[in-house]
Specification:
This protein is an alpha/beta fold. The chain has 13 helices and 16 strands. The protein has a 7-stranded mixed beta sheet, with helices on both faces. The longest helix is centred in the C-terminal third of the chain and has 23 residues. The protein is globular, with a radius of gyration of 22 Å. It starts with 8 loop residues before the first helix and ends with a helix. The mean pLDDT is 97.
């Protein structure tokens, strides 16, 4: 029971009824879902109308990096609404300029120009458009085990099954295997082998596709929804060198990994690599008002110095969204949120998850950094057979469904995808909240253990 709200099941029933009558939910068979009616949220928690409180180990969709309802960000939105609630993107607006300045100060290298979008998918769409116009080429290479968004180009770039229904096969996208030692497509036994073979595979792919036809390579710096697979040392540097060799634009997708999630402002800092374009969204303002964007290098920006860029959005750099971004970045600085994410990962969350792996036969691998972790659940640790088949649904997915239900019963809202659960709490999560989440995971994993052999 949460102290924040008096239980009101009747109100919850009304919210649920209106939702079921009128709201069309994403990624869902509408008649098979039962959305929880949420009454409120604060910090790392949210609660329903029955008074049940949940520790959110999903950060929404991995975007509430400073938690729910941070008072300074809420106040900044209110103040901006009273001052200038909206204005067209063609004008210079103080809060838009300040948001761009603060973001550019934190991006690596010379990524100093910011094109604002409403979210991550639109950021990817525009980054690819910029790369194609800059190079005069059309093909884009992206990895299997990736997610880049649900709009037309972004969904075709995506490497997971959500792409299948929308994949036209004519979008100019070529996919390749990125490194992932635990389930290596290259039969590697060490990180060094995985790195070397993955880079050789990528360069072979480029050679057979024709280097002069390829505009860009896009990678999530650390793939998120696909499994939080940190690339081995040297891989991203190697991709950077390959891109330079063939005149290919290097795009890093930091929509999920950026703004403190990995214990750095951007995950690229872990690898000392600077892309030509970097997409962002989610944590830039903790999702309080939709905002995303592309950070653009000097070389790419110069292409459009006297040549118009043929792209834009009505709400690009929306004042309310930018005010939320300015306040969020300031909060992250003042409250040392990035440093907290790094410390939590090193001292509390990472060690706690590894301890769970030692005791639970269903945990095949623990991987991650900062507050960006995944547990790869398996039927057998030796064979690494996933707990459920790839893209399982219905009865085939029953073990993961049971695990998720057990986590919720213990007050934890889990991030579950295929055979994995991700531990992705807010970047300002406390030690005690992490320990509470680990205890709930411990109990839920006993359910997963029942399906091991």
């Amino acid at each position: 029971m949460t102290p924040h709200v008096v239980p009101d099941p009747q109100a919850g029933a009304a919210v649920k009824a209106a939702d079921r009558a009128h709201v069309f939910h994403s990624w869902s068979a509408q008649g098979l879902i039962d959305p929880l009616a949420v009454a409120g949220a604060e910090g790392s928690y949210f609660w329903d109308y029955d008074g049940n409180r949940y520790l959110d180990f999903t950060s929404g969709l991995v975007y509430t990096n400073i938690g729910y309802q941070h008072p300074k960000v809420v106040a900044a939105i209110q103040e901006q609404a009273a001052k200038l609630a909206t204005f067209a993107p063609a004008f210079a607006v103080d809060v838009r300029s300040e948001a761009a300045r603060l973001i550019a100060e934190r991006t690596p290298g010379d990524l100093d120009k910011i094109f604002f979008t409403n979210g991550g998918a639109e950021a990817v769409e525009n980054a690819v458009r910029m790369a194609r116009l800059h190079t005069g080429r059309h093909k884009v290479l992206s990895a299997f085990r990736s997610y880049h968004g649900a709009t037309s180009t972004a969904i075709n770039l995506t490497g997971d099954p959500r792409r299948w229904a929308s994949d036209t096969g004519s979008a100019g996208v070529v996919r390749f295997w990125a490194p992932f030692l635990y389930r290596s497509p290259f039969y590697a036994e060490t990180e060094q082998q995985e790195c070397e073979r993955a880079l050789a595979h990528l360069e072979d792919t480029i050679a057979f596709e024709g280097p002069g036809t390829i505009a860009a390579i896009i990678l999530e710096t650390i793939p998120g929804t696909a499994g939080i697979m940190t690339p081995p040392p040297g891989y991203l540097t190697g991709v950077r060198e390959i891109c330079d060799k063939y005149g290919i634009v290097f795009v890093l997708d930091e929509v999920m990994a950026g703004f403190g999630r990995t214990g750095k402002w951007f995950a690229a800092e872990h690898f000392d690599v600077v892309p030509d374009l970097m997409t962002f969204a989610k944590g830039v303002n903790s999702g309080y008002v939709p905002l995303g964007g592309v950070a653009i290098s000097e070389r790419i920006a110069a292409t459009f110095e006297t040549r118009p860029y043929p792209g834009g959005l009505t709400y690009s750099g929306h004042p309310l969204a930018c005010a939320a971004a300015v306040a969020t970045i300031q909060v992250m600085e003042d409250e040392k949120v990035v440093e907290n994410a790094a410390r939590i990962g090193e001292q509390v969350l990472g060690p706690g998850l590894r301890e769970l792996a030692e005791r639970h036969p269903s945990v095949g691998e623990v991987r991650g950094t900062g507050v960006f972790w995944a547990l790869d659940l398996v039927r057998n640790k030796e064979t690494r057979e996933p707990l459920v088949p790839y893209n399982a649904s219905g009865e085939a997915n029953a073990p993961m469904a049971a695990f998720g239900a057990a986590a919720k019963k213990n007050g934890l809202w889990p991030f579950v995808n295929m055979n994995r659960t991700h531990a992705v709490p807010a970047c300002n999560v406390t030690d005690d909240e992490v320990k509470e989440g680990l205890a709930a995971l411990d109990a839920a994993l006993t359910v997963a253990d029942e399906h091991t052999v």
